[in-house]
Write a structure and sequence with these properties.
The chain is mainly beta and 377 residues long. Helices cover 11% and strands 35% of the residues. The protein has helices at residues 7-21, 73-76, 93-99, 108-111, 150-153, 178-183, and strands at 42-45, 48-51, 117-119, 125-127, 135-138, 141-144, 158-164, 167-172, 188-196, 200-205, 217-222, 241-244, 249-251, 256-257, 264-266, 287-307, 316-322, 325-331, 338-358, 367-368, 370-375. The chain starts with 6 loop residues before the first helix and ends with a strand.
Length: 377
């Protein structure tokens, strides 16, 4: 006797499967726009939170491992009992297998996306949210738009010498100062150096707001509030904070030489193992982290290090983080200045502050002796 699956049976099975997937799917379910509007055991379908059975694996049928009636083509693909397919061949495996096809419904959490519209895997659209002003959705996450240096370029008294997605740098030639230079691009001054026209940068560091009478200086600009709201608590005013390198955390410790001199530095060669038995010759990549508790206020941040002619030719990357905002500056230590206090920038700091010399980005040598936060108010 030949066996086959009728169209009616297929419809009944499909309806049963949909009902099992949409357990609790009714108008009484919460209204939603994206998956994160729903409980952990539900997804957003047609603006309603739909509860998923178990761990959600049943959406694609991959968790049906018991070999039951709907396990796969071997059970319901129209097996014959030894007779020829004959007139019933149109309900054989080629047609019946399609009736069991399913899809994997994607979720924003599962994809790791927080913004944008995406294919939900089942011929629908998955909306994962929008980005705030100033941010764009890039590969599913909100990221800052590249800075626009055109305002600096448009000023005949300003020279734009370097730029990137998060910075502009160059020289003012009219005595305007770096605060005005950076403000032309809607940015804040993160570092200032002596400088001359035609993009000549000197090694001398100068506070961003200093009125030194120079007609030209080199300015480095980054994101931030041009006029930050940094109200001070009169009962807990800003105070100077300073930490020595022996109060920092070095990771990995083996990349840093700490016992040979009165400063810390990254290195590559075995000659330094003789004076610091915890140092291991290698790549010289690592971080030094200084942590502070600073009363709210505006601070000038300084880093003291040993300048020598064999330091990192790209400059030491130093990152200051507070209130969820990070300020990155490359400090040039490649000269014969010996121990030098380098100016990082002026920032509104509050509570927990981290200053990190990140030498993991380069195997070249960087140095740090002390970090100081000086009230600017």
């Amino acid at each position: 006797m030949k066996t086959f699956i009728s169209v009616n049976l297929i419809l009944v099975l499909s309806l049963a499967l949909l009902l099992s997937l949409c357990q609790g799917c009714s108008d009484s379910q919460p209204i939603c726009e994206i998956d994160t509007d729903c409980p952990d055991n539900a997804v957003c379908l047609n603006n309603r939170c739909v509860i998923i059975n178990g761990d959600g694996g049943d959406l694609d049928g991959s968790d049906q491992q018991d070999g039951g009636d709907d396990a796969g083509p071997s059970d319901d693909a129209g097996e014959q009992d030894g007779g020829d397919p004959g007139e019933d061949s149109d309900v054989g495996p080629s047609d019946d297998a399609g009736a069991g096809d399913s899809c994997t419904l994607q979720t924003c959490i599962g994809l790791g996306y927080t913004c944008g519209d995406w294919d939900d895997g089942c011929e629908g659209i998955l909306h994962c949210g929008n980005c705030d002003d100033g941010l764009t959705c890039q590969q599913g996450t909100c990221q800052a738009e590249p800075v626009d240096c055109s305002g600096i370029q448009a000023n005949p008294a300003f020279e734009l010498c370097d730029s990137g997605p998060d910075h502009c740098a160059g020289v003012f030639t009219n005595g305007a100062g770096c605060i005005a230079y950076c403000a032309a691009a809607g940015l804040v001054c993160t570092a200032r150096f002596g400088g001359e026209p035609n993009c000549q940068k000197e090694t001398i560091t100068i506070p961003c707001g200093e009125n030194n009478g120079h007609m030209s200086d080199w300015c480095e600009c980054g994101r931030g509030q041009v006029n930050p709201d940094c109200n001070i608590d009169p009962g807990n005013p800003p105070v100077q904070r300073e930490k020595h390198y022996n109060q920092a955390v070095f990771d990995p410790r083996s990349s840093w030489v700490l016992q040979c001199r009165d400063y810390a530095y990254t290195a590559q060669y075995a000659e330094h193992e003789a004076c610091d038995n915890l140092y291991v010759a290698g790549s010289g990549r690592g971080t030094a982290t200084f942590t502070f508790d600073a009363p709210r206020g505006m601070y000038d941040v300084y880093i003291e290090g040993r300048h020598t002619i064999n330091r990192n030719p790209s400059g030491a990357l130093v990152i200051v983080t507070s209130n969820g905002q990070s300020h990155s500056v490359y400090i040039m230590q490649r000269d014969e200045g010996n121990l030098v206090w380098d100016y990082h920038g002026q920032y509104c700091l509050d509570g927990g502050v981290q200053v990190v010399m990140d030498s993991s980005v380069s195997s070249a040598s960087d140095s740090v002796r002390r970090v100081r936060l000086t009230p600017a108010n």
